[in-house]
Amino acid sequence: MAKKLFLKTLGCAMNVRDSEHMIAELNRIERYDLTQDESEADLIIINTCSVREKPVNKLFSEIGQFVKHKKKSAKIGVCGCTASHLGEEILKRAPEVSFVLGARNISKITQAVNSEKFLGINIDHDESEYAFGEFRQNLYKAYINISIGCDKKCAFCIVPHTRGDEISIPHDIILNEAMKATKNGAKEIFLLGQNVNNYGKRLSGGRKGELNFSQLLSQISKIDEVERIRFTSPHPLHMDDEFLEVFASNPKICKSMHMPLQSGSTNILKAMKRGYTKEWFLKRAEKLRQMSPNVAISTDIIVGFPGESEKDFEDTMSVMEEVRFEQIFSFKYSARPLTAAAQMTNVVDDETASLRLQRLQNRHMSMLDEMSSKYLDKTFEVYFEELRDNGMAAGRTSQNFTVCVAGSEELLGKMKNVKITRPQRLVLYGQIV
Ligand code: 5AD
Ligand code: SF4
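Above: inputs. Below: predicted complex with iron/sulfur cluster.
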């Protein structure tokens, strides 16, 4: 009989793919079926994220809950970014945990599961050419890693300490994965990396890649069965003209661009070590909109970074007004261990940061109302990926807008034209035409 696996995945798409890789690796040796019920699981894995501070205690209280409800023989493992940076502390504080496997060490999952105790947190471990087994939770949209780790030293970010230096995956492995995924029915390829448009700068053993990111996109688009290509996350600094040109002219590349701004103030950007100024960002965004008039731009913004004055925050608001981002992921700054910003003493008090976040989010909501009303009666090509409650099927437009229509399984994996009848801020409702 197959064993049962309860797997909780937190954090970003990279973690989602890491979880898929772990399932694939486990299944090579013996079959595991996924379960939503931790009390019947033979193996419990938490794939953690550490990008913002959640009290570490929360992880330990969660482990405590699993210990309470699990089968006696079930093993518990903690994986991912928090595993990377807390490492051995987890094994010490929670003796019921039998393995800790950092991001970038997940190819060791079967070894970890079969050991009495296992700690694998080496951020120099190179999995870039490792042939993972095949498993995908979403058959329609195939996540493919193109690089691991990150060479940037943004002052707020813990990721270089949890995922190590940036190494690109050889392009033949990526193209192979894309072909396999499309053979299994995926029409959309979603490329993943911390810094995707820096692709190819360094491969395993210090080699340089043969293709840069723009060339990689072009190669993937030549696979006939690939209908859509997405990627995350690009860095604004590497959005050169060649990249914007390929993005604009290749019809298979979805017209959705993530441009993580972080702050609109040149002073704060400097303190964050982002490598660009407010003006530079605005010019890139303007050029992107000129070259790809249908593009939707999403961004990440941090408010309350150390030293952020009212004037700095106004700069962020003004970039938001000017670029009119279609989607914003906004966060209150959270000091992370091992980062440069954690040493800064000019902290913004929590109340001020919360008020700024509120102001930014409120203004963006009203901008979204203005923007979404324009989509009434417009027709979009939608790729359907999931079922929602109350008889709705949901899909995405090229711009990554979520569209819902009345429908069921037969729509999944299909592209349909949908006319929008009821645009809302975050979801557009419509009818297939
Ligand atoms: N505090 C708040 N937000 C952060 N992010 C990364 N590190 C921090 C931090 N210390 C945000 C950034 C990044 C996104 C993934 O998470 O905006 O782009
Ligand atoms: Fe992903 Fe970063 Fe969170 Fe790690 S810390 S899971 S890389 S978002």
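DSSP finds 13 helices and 19 strands in the chain.
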